[in-house]
Design a protein that fits this description.
The protein is mainly α. It has helices spanning about 15-45, 60-80, 85-100, 105-130. The chain has two domains: about 10-55, no CATH class; about 60-135, no CATH class.
């Protein structure tokens, strides 16, 4: 019974553990959202699945959507090249600029401060406190 409560994680692959948990949680939430929408339609005596379902809300900001997707893909690529901390500093800063939609000096400075604090805090928490390897 002691072995049931014992968790052994290899340091070289420990960074692969949390993404699996997060993906599972996101899939669970997606199932909950779809189930809720179907139950509401059934309760209102409407067809459960229709062509009326839309993925995007009206007037969705496609620039932010596709800008975010491009930045995320680049982040994954750059992560392997320069490592977690420098890549996170750069891309959190770029994401902030994308969503801020302005290049005023105050906004750029705030984006820079946020990227430094968030990146260093996450790196310190996982690398030092939890001793989990980061890519």
């Amino acid at each position: 019974m002691d072995s049931f409560f014992k968790l052994e994680v290899q340091y070289s692959t420990s960074h692969l553990f949390f993404p699996k948990i997060i993906i599972g949680f996101l899939v669970f939430l997606a199932v909950l959202i779809v189930t809720k929408k179907v139950l509401i339609r059934v309760r209102n005596k409407q067809p459960a699945i229709t062509r009326e379902w839309k993925f995007f809300v009206k007037d969705a900001d496609m620039f932010m959507l596709f800008g975010s997707l491009v930045l995320f893909m680049l982040y994954i690529f750059v992560l392997d090249l320069i490592g977690f901390l420098p890549a996170s500093l750069i891309f959190i800063f770029l994401f902030n600029l994308l969503f801020c939609r302005t290049l005023k000096p105050r906004s750029v400075l705030i984006s820079l401060i946020i990227s430094v604090i968030a990146s260093v805090l996450v790196w310190y928490l996982f690398s030092v406190v939890f001793n989990i390897s980061l890519p």
